[in-house]
């Protein structure tokens, strides 16, 4: 049995929606919904866990934080049960504190980041490390649907079943992402599983994305993201998406990606795109009633 610490700390990044989301063939269950996440390291959730023997997990947010922690609490309880079953710990409960920089209800992975941070904090308190399979299953069990923020590689992930459908390659090509908001908060679990397109369409996009990732083709990644964003309009309509795509095209962007279950979008640019070019694109967007973020976020090999 591992020696328990007095406290444990766990961390997770958030994300900025997806490059691709739909239905796919998979060897585990035939076909299932899946997604490829856009990880963003500047969005974070940090959890602190102090174990005890009360049999209960009490969850709190940092001062000023949003108090939606039932999923993080569920993840902490599930992690305790998992580690006790393996004989790793003796404690039965504890105090969980979450501090996050991720907006809630926008499709940016706030709940998944909280869940992962909580699970890692409990494991850290036990002086053990959870493998990626355990993290994936604990996350899906706590949330119902989860993002693969535990992965260092781009993967097509069955976000409602907890398994990797396909490892797409070593790393995403370097890009810059500029944020744009296209609506308000949504309850992501109330949405349909995928857009109206058939599985054949999503399998074609899967093949194109795999080829683009392995070739380091940022423009190919952007093209897949744009098409997936458009297909998702039948599932979760985003006003202004076509206007944003037109602005992106006129500014030399690679494409547009969205949070398929949220209301944010990102304009993707080459990682060498000039500051002046970004400024001009912001002006064009403002003329069309859209507000782009003030600073680009490096993603992929540029992060």
Automatic annotation (TrEMBL):
Q: What's the protein name?
A: GHMP kinase
Identify the taxonomic lineage of the organism of origin. Answer: Bacteria, Bacillati, Actinomycetota, Actinomycetes, Mycobacteriales
Domain (GHMP kinase N-terminal) ranges: 79-144
* Database matches in InterPro entries: GHMP_kinase_N_dom, Ribosomal_Su5_D2-typ_SF, Ribsml_uS5_D2-typ_fold_subgr
The scientific name of the source species is Tsukamurella paurometabola (strain ATCC 8368 / DSM 20162 / CCUG 35730 / CIP 100753 / JCM 10117 / KCTC 9821 / NBRC 16120 / NCIMB 702349 / NCTC 13040)
Q: Its domain of life? A: Bacteria
- Report if keyword Transferase is assigned: yes
Parts of the chain that traverse the membrane: none
Query: What is an example of a Pfam family matching this protein?
Result: GHMP_kinases_N
Keywords assigned by UniProt?
Answer: Kinase, Transferase
Which Gene Ontology molecular-function terms are recorded?
A: ATP binding; kinase activity
């Amino acid at each position: 049995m591992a020696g328990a610490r007095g406290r444990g700390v766990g961390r997770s990044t958030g994300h900025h929606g997806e490059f691709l989301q739909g239905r796919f063939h998979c060897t585990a269950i035939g076909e299932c919904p899946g997604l490829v996440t856009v990880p963003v390291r500047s969005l974070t959730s940090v959890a602190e866990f102090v174990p005890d023997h009360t049999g209960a997990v009490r969850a709190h947010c940092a001062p000023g934080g949003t108090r939606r922690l039932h999923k993080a609490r569920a993840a902490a309880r599930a992690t305790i049960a998992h580690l006790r079953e393996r004989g790793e710990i003796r404690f039965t409960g504890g105090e969980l504190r979450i501090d996050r920089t991720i907006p809630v209800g926008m499709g940016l992975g706030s709940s998944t980041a909280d869940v992962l941070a909580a699970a890692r904090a409990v494991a850290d308190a036990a002086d053990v490390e959870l493998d990626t399979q355990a993290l994936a299953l604990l996350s899906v069990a706590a949330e119902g649907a989860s993002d693969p923020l535990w992965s260092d590689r781009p993967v097509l992930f069955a976000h409602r079943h907890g398994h990797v459908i396909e490892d797409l390659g070593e790393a995403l090509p370097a890009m810059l992402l500029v944020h744009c908001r296209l609506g308000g908060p949504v309850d992501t679990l109330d949405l349909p599983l995928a857009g109206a397109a058939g599985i054949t369409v999503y399998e074609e996009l899967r093949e194109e994305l795999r080829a683009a990732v392995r070739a380091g083709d940022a423009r190919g990644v952007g093209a897949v993201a744009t098409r997936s964003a458009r297909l998702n309009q039948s599932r979760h309509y985003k006003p202004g998406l076509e206007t944003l795509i037109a602005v992106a095209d006129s500014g030399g962007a690679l494409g547009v990606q969205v949070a398929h279950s949220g209301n944010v979008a990102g304009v993707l640019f080459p990682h060498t795109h000039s500051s002046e070019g970004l400024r001009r694109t912001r002006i064009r967007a403002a003329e069309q009633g859209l507000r782009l973020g003030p600073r680009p976020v490096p993603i992929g090999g540029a992060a």
